[in-house]
Design goal:
The protein is of the alpha/beta class. It has 14 helices and seven strands. The chain folds into three domains: 43 residues, no CATH class; 183 residues, Rossmann fold (3-Layer(aba) Sandwich); 71 residues. Helix 3 crosses helix 4, helix 5 packs parallel to helix 7 and helix 10 packs across helix 11.
């Protein structure tokens, strides 16, 4: 009656196209056919699966209440969030959305992937921490002042803390979120990992001391991302990984898979969703990969079912990657 109609209210048109939010203004002369054409024009084309799902992508599926808890936590003074899961489960995509939420609040953000560190960076703790400090400073647009703060007598951990406390954080008048992606790379260097993770825990605790320096450390919020596909020594879990908010990303539920199916414009019933999940479970990357190939008519769901030789011949190996 008010001239604005949700597409999903127009017969079964919405269900056959997409659950991605689309609202069209209808007039008395607007036909269902014209609505169908309009929706088809704006229905998203599937992205090639793999890597981070873009912030503006309609193919990102939330896993409540995880996103909301992370958004709330990152706004707390001295926050520490750890996100872990196997490869290609959506860790970096969630990280990007947490950082986006922080930026909306006016926070500074830094994303640092340890894949950027050359192998010689891991030759010693001192070199690693200098690289870490310089990388964060460069991301903030601050000149390298390591020579003024590094003290060989006091050691690397102390010098790194001093650099953050009296230089990097001191330059900021807003909170900062530092996201450390691919942290599992550091696991391969036990001595560096042990010292670095203990350092992160110390910084987390500094925000809670209630002394004159606590306000400086309250500006810092840490977001660490790592894969569970690598061995993590038990001693590492005793450092910063038992504080703050820990999020282990689960596989998609059948409802979440169904939401993703509908975003690909497939009018599947619950049985078809279950058939898909019998092939790839709720593993986000694998689900998206199957739907991508079905959308482009490379294969059909029926061809992928166990009774079909096509599954073994063409897609079996790829769907398990």
């Amino acid at each position: 009656t008010d001239g604005v109609t949700d597409v999903t209210d127009v017969g079964d048109v919405g269900d056959k196209l997409s659950i991605c939010p689309l609202h069209l203004t209808l007039t008395d002369n607007t036909s269902v056919t014209s609505v169908t054409k309009s929706v088809a024009i704006y229905s998203p084309i599937p992205e090639l699966p793999g890597g981070q799902v873009p912030l503006d992508s309609p193919f990102y599926i939330e896993r409540p209440p995880i996103e909301e808890r992370c958004y709330d936590t990152i706004l707390q003074s001295g926050a520490f969030i750890r996100i872990y899961a196997p490869r290609q489960m959506g860790k970096t995509s969630l990280m990007a959305r947490i950082l986006d939420q922080a930026r909306e609040e006016g926070y500074r953000t830094v994303t640092l992937s340890f894949q950027l560190a050359s192998s010689n960076i891991f030759s010693s703790l001192d070199r690693f921490l200098k690289w870490f400090c310089a990388s964060v400073g460069k991301s903030l647009g601050l000149p390298n002042q390591l020579a003024n703060y590094w003290d060989d007598v006091l050691g690397s951990n102390y010098s790194c803390t001093d650099y953050f406390e009296n230089y990097l954080l001191a330059q900021l008048d807003t909170p900062i979120v530092i996201a450390l992606d691919d942290l599992d790379i550091v696991f391969h260097y036990p001595d560096i990992a042990s010292n670095f993770f203990c350092l992160l825990r110390t910084w987390y605790e500094k925000a809670k001391y209630g002394n004159s320096l606590s306000d400086i450390w309250k500006k810092l919020r840490l977001l660490v991302i790592h894969s569970t596909d690598v061995y993590v020594p038990s001693t590492i879990y005793q450092s910063p990984f038992n504080v703050g908010l820990s999020i282990e990303l689960p596989e998609f539920t059948s409802k979440q898979v169904h939401d993703l199916v509908r975003c690909h414009q497939f009018d599947w019933d619950a049985d078809q969703v279950e058939q898909l999940m019998s092939l790839v479970g709720g593993y986000p990357y694998r689900v998206r990969k199957v739907l991508y190939h079905i959308w482009y008519h490379d294969v059909s769901l029926e061809q992928l079912l166990p009774k079909s030789a096509t599954k073994q011949r063409i897609y079996g190996e790829h769907l398990r990657q």
